[in-house]
Amino acid sequence: MRILLAFCLFVLAIASDFDGHAQELDVTDIVTANDAFSAARSKTTRDALMGALSDYSGDATVESVNAYVTLLLHDGTGESSEDLYQSATAATAHFEPVADIIPKQYLEARLLAAIAQFNINQVPEAMIEMAHVEGRARAYEDEIGERPDWAKTLEWKADAWGMAMDAYFDSAREDHPDESEIQAILAGYNADVASRNARADRSLDERGLPFCAGRMIQRPKMRYPAGYANRGRFGAVILELDLDSEGQVINPRVRASVPEGVFDEKSLRVVGKWKFKPDDRRAVGVSCRLERANLVQPLTFALD
Question: Cβ distance 80 to 44 under 8 Å?
Answer without folding.
Answer: no
